[in-house]
Amino acid sequence: GLQWQASLQPAQVDSLTADSAVAGLLQPGDLIVAIDGQRIEGADQVSAQIQELGRRGGPGMIEVLRGGERLALEVTPRAGKDGQGKPVWQIGVGFSGAFSPAYDTLMRYGPLDAVTVAVRETGRLASDSLGMMARIVTGKASLQNVSGPVTIARVANVSAKRGLDWFLQFLALLSLSLCIINLLPIPILDGGHLLYYLIELVKGSPLSERAIAAGQYIGLALLAGLMGLAFYNDILGLVPR
Hints:
With 241 residues, the protein is α+β, with helices and mostly antiparallel strands. It is 48% helix and 15% strand.
């Protein structure tokens, strides 16, 4: 259920060293977008491209955005040493270390578009939940992912502190999870009744009372085991490590 967030620092020039190889060419505020035809997505890519340019020898082209205009500047890296005294190629520019990407993006939809997006998001969350259940059953995911009311209360508290939208999204996810669990083919649950109806449809006659009673006992045992595991993980999560 994890989703990664891109956090590349833009290759925007923050300062120039006194002996910079690009003095008079690059300026603070310039955004480097390409070096010798190689696209630059973030500041961490600049050094590798400068090393490649230096090893080839001769000047290279650095493309920057300045005031909405794209400029191509000819630059020749200089040989120098890094903080550990190792030889490196340098152009003498520094990037801001205070970059922090925005964590959230707010997207607003109209009434009709919101319905479509909500249905699509519900399908995605349902697919993720079923996938996690399948991984737990097959042993590809830890049983510690099963949680109970204590964890639900803790997550509800955290989401409520973050705002109404986060809390409503948590409630929606909780309702969807309960819906999925209720539809599992386990006797006692609604999914178990649907399973009985399916068997009756295929068999052509209803199940015997003895078979139904046996299924009820099996369903009770499965639910009791699931609830016991959930409470165990909840209590274990409260114990300091």
